[in-house]
Design a protein that fits this description.
mainly beta; Immunoglobulin-like; Tumour Suppressor Smad4; six-stranded antiparallel sheet; disordered N terminus
């Protein structure tokens, strides 16, 4: 969901907080950089060093709120009280809000905290808060009543990239606990201006977009919800589209098989969730009726990098085998993505957790642009379709159809942009055709997109220094200054191989670069320029640093963890 080409993302460990960082692109092949508020972290190969850059011009982080249709901005650290008292920072006229202080918002560089102080309570996703709520991503609360209480939107003082990472890298998977919806009711990932304005609505037979009612009803019947495991144990769910009467279902790899090779590269980091033993298939029973648990399905073709999977129904929900030929299920056919026009109507179907409903939800919009593969592994310029049809967590793996009911895309991810901008992305079904063909022909599918590991890859040493030459020479120590270069000496890294690096700072914080691709020219030293200002320090902290390098479709660690040291400058 992040821009991959010419960019880098850094993840901090511990409490999971991130500094204020903005993804930037640098001119020139192989150059990567991450600009913080006061500096740049760059990464280059041995022959392509990115020079140090001056301080960035990032704005100071702020807390953003929305109440009663009005957006307010507050500096970090300033307490914000909400209630009906005119002397408070946020004033409501809704009688369900407490006359005095209903709740208090406090903020810090790592996020915000909301504390309810009312009798009526504050609610998130229909559930009353029982204690302080830590906020590291945008949320919408209801004051005084879980359904009709006034909405209070809160966006913490973080960048859109930080918010996106805090929310699971914006893959649109849902979550379930004991079969009940537990997904956060979040309306935006990159700012509060879009809060509460998802174009989500219960499925109906009359769309302004021109989709005939009969076509919509058929598409609804072909849309399913997929639970990872049984309804009693599933903690995650997504959506899917039936693409054959014999029970083939198209969905996302991150829904069906989170550990699929290539998915780590596509998302910039390995998924933490294990592969489920099977998927429970819940079918629609009507536009306003809850889904019915009917079948079990298993993965028969998956491509992690494409984030696509085909699953096959093989049993009833209780595990009794079924013959695919006896199913006779409603299904959708694939459309021709190559003929899709900009501003063409499109409708998405699925089961977003934000709707807090067990019935199907649809959204309508248009195709706004076509997006190529950011990492350039796939050449199709229509690798992704950007749409104005809003999608949310749980929509992952569902369908996006044209007015003829043909399947054009699979809702998969979002891209946070500048300010409140959010790009909603559909994976083109054209990329799914090889997987579907393999599934229909009962042959194994083998992805040929990414360069696999051969076992010959190795890290022969690591170093640190004030310059790339010093770091690549394997120097184990460097004096603390306002910047430093870390390096890995490698062999066996073939052109096209994906890799990332992870650095553990003396205080335990972890910084992870976004994945990069080994250039055709190869190279024996991979090095990374880091500015102390990026980690909000005047000089690089003194102490031991752990360096790790990961490569291949599953981002597997190559070599052992190396340790280098930054020492105090001479005379200190």
């Amino acid at each position: 969901m992040y821009q991959k080409q010419g960019s880098a993302i850094y993840r901090f460990g511990g409490d999971g907080e991130l500094p204020n960082l903005a993804v930037v692109s640098l001119m020139g092949k192989g150059h990567l950089a991450l600009r913080g508020e006061r500096g740049v972290v760059a990464m280059a190969t041995e022959t392509e060093m990115t020079p140090a850059r001056g301080p960035g011009q990032g704005q100071a982080p702020v807390l953003v709120t929305r109440l009663g249709g009005q957006q307010r901005i507050f500096p970090v650290g300033a307490p914000v009280r909400v209630g009906r008292d005119p002397s408070l920072e946020l004033v409501s006229v809704n009688p369900m809000v407490s006359r005095d202080t209903h709740g208090v918002i406090t903020s810090d560089p790592g996020g915000a905290t909301y504390v309810d102080q009312s009798r009526r309570g504050t609610f998130l996703d229909g559930k009353q808060l029982s204690g302080p709520l830590r906020i590291t991503e945008s949320v919408v609360l209801r004051l005084g009543d879980p359904a009709t209480g006034e909405e209070l939107g809160i966006t913490p003082p973080l960048t859109s990239t930080q918010i996106a990472r805090n929310h699971g890298r914006r893959v649109l998977g849902g979550r379930m606990r004991r079969g009940a919806l537990a997904g956060a009711a979040l309306a935006a990932v990159a700012g509060l201006a879009t809060y509460g304005f998802f174009a989500l609505r219960p499925a109906s037979g009359d769309l302004n977009g021109g989709l005939p009612p009969a076509v919509l009803r058929h598409a609804e019947a072909a849309t399913v919800r997929l639970l990872e495991g049984t309804p009693d144990t599933a903690e995650h769910f997504g959506s899917g589209t039936i693409i054959s009467p014999t029970g083939l279902i198209l969905t996302n790899a991150h829904v069906a098989q989170p550990q699929a090779p290539g998915l780590a590269v596509a998302l910039g980091a390995p998924m933490p969730d294990p592969n489920p033993p099977f998927l429970t298939v819940q079918v629609t029973t009507g536009p306003s009726s809850p889904v019915a648990t009917k079948y079990r399905a298993k993965v028969v073709a998956v491509d992690g990098y494409l984030d696509l999977a085909v699953v096959q129904i093989y049993a009833t929900a209780s595990g009794k085998p079924v013959s695919p030929g006896s199913l006779h299920l409603p299904y959708l056919t694939l459309g021709n993505v190559a003929s899709v026009q900009l501003d063409q109507d499109i409708t998405t179907l699925g089961f977003p957790a934000v709707a807090a409903s067990n019935s199907i939800t649809i959204t309508s919009g248009v195709v706004s642009t076509f997006v190529p593969d950011p990492l350039k592994h796939v050449r199709d310029p229509r690798f992704q379709l950007e749409t104005t049809a809003r999608v949310a967590h749980g929509n992952s793996g569902g369908g996006a159809i044209d007015n003829a009911g043909h399947l054009l895309g699979v809702p998969s991810l979002t891209i946070p942009g500048q300010g409140t901008d959010v790009s909603w992305r559909l994976r083109s079904v054209a990329e799914a055709r090889p997987l579907i063909a393999a599934a229909r022909n009962h042959v194994a599918y083998h992805s040929k997109i990414l360069v696999p590991l051969t076992g010959a890859e190795s890290v022969n040493g690591a170093g640190v220094g004030a310059t790339s030459d010093a770091a690549c020479s394997g120097s184990p120590t460097a004096a603390s200054s306002d910047s430093v270069v870390f390096a890995f000496n490698v062999t066996g890294f073939r052109p096209g191989l994906d890799y990332i690096a992870q650095f553990t700072l003396p205080n335990g914080d972890q910084m992870t670069s976004n994945q990069e691709i080994m250039p055709k020219s190869g190279g024996s030293c991979l090095y990374f320029y880091m500015s102390a200002s990026t980690i909000q320090q005047a000089a690089m902290p003194v102490g031991a640093y752990k360096l790790q390098l990961f490569a291949g479709p599953s981002l597997t660690q190559v070599g052992k963890t190396a340790v280098v040291h930054i020492t105090a400058p001479a005379g200190h």
